[in-house]
Amino acid sequence: MSTAPDWITTPITSDLLRGALDLEQTAHGVLPHRLPARARAQSTDGQLAMAEAQPSGVRVVLSTRATVIELDALRTKRAYVGAPPRPDGVYDLLVDGQAAGQACVTGGNLLTVDMATGSAETRSGPVGTVRFAGLPDRVKDVEIWLPYNETTELVALRTDAPVEPVPDRGRARWVHHGSSISHGSDAASPSATWPAVAGFLGGVELTNLGLGGSALLDPFTARALRDAPADLISIKMGINLVNTDVMRLRAFGPAVHGFLDTVREGHPTVPLLVVSPILCPIHEDTPGPSAPDFEELKAGRLSFRATGDPAERAAGKLTLGVIRDELARIVRQRAAEDPHLHYLDGRALYGEADFAELPLPDQLHPDAAAHRRMGERFAALAFESGGPFATGG
């Protein structure tokens, strides 16, 4: 931490943050949340609590002449027993919309998860500092994108010149909800997740409600979407319903209708795009749940397998193929009365040819190159002429 006497310390408040729905005051500073407090109070699931507090798409945004910026942060990083260490979270710096640097924070807490037993323990660590220097000496828009894979408490912001909130630039507000794939799992950095890539190309302001392991049609998530300021909304659903095996076909259809009904209560005419799952061969025709492949873990590799039986589809167990068919049917039915509702088959973002070229490293999540490809394809399909978001971007 610098002790330079001319630092200006600025409180980290909501007007300097984009992409968060709530800020919690902690013993160290502020913790950005991607679900509001009322939604968090309605779930006791540890996976959801971890996912929504990982600030995917959340960024510190300010206007300043500063040439040096320091951000103190306390991270909580994950590790899995028997698996290779997870990469450190990355902070991306953008100046006037252009990539201008990257850094990682040291110290912090470590959450170690044993997937064989379901147990977890946390080891505490110190606050660290991210420093960006040599910035251009002019008034500029600065964005610091926070790591998508580390819970991040923001402790202090220091600069060598005053900062101000960035005024509204008139960009459409895009709110996206999905699974860990939307959350960013295995992307190169926070501004390189597929929703971030698509948002840059579409010229919109992204709020990413991708929640790893937690895109489960929860009513409180639907209410968060309903209440969030939005000009464009997309909902990518399916993979978590299969790999957690929480629902049967009888419940799935009404749950989708209820989720969409709730979103429409707050946004009756906003363009709303329902996106089905990308290709995932282990679950195309085989139900869940997913489970770690312990033989792969013994070899030091994290991988997953489907544990269901394809014959169980007759009893209503969900597969990705079943979900795509049902989502297409539901959107087709509703679109007769809702002209702003649209459907996109997720295999248009990542399909069989993509899997042959860029296979899913752990059988569930795309790699960094696939994230970029998915973002570029979504931007072309949704934001360009003829797409459902073309007039809103």
Largest sheet: 6 strands, mixed
Helix content: 25-40%
Distance between the termini: 41 Å
Low-confidence stretches: none
Care to count the β-strands? 21
Overall, the morphology is: globular
Structural class: alpha+beta
- Using the CA coordinates, give the radius of gyration: 21 Å
Mean pLDDT: 95
**Beta-strand content bin:** 25-35%
User: What is the number of helices?
Assistant: 11
Which properties best describe this structure?
11 helices, 25% helix, 393 residues, 6-stranded antiparallel sheet, globular, single chain, alpha+beta, 6-stranded mixed sheet
3D structure, described in words:
The chain is α+β, with helices and mostly antiparallel strands and 393 residues long. Helix content is 25%, strand content 27%. The protein has eleven helices and 21 strands. The longest helix is centred in the middle third of the chain and has 18 residues, at 249-266. It is globular and about 70 Å long. The model has no long low-confidence stretch (mean pLDDT 95).
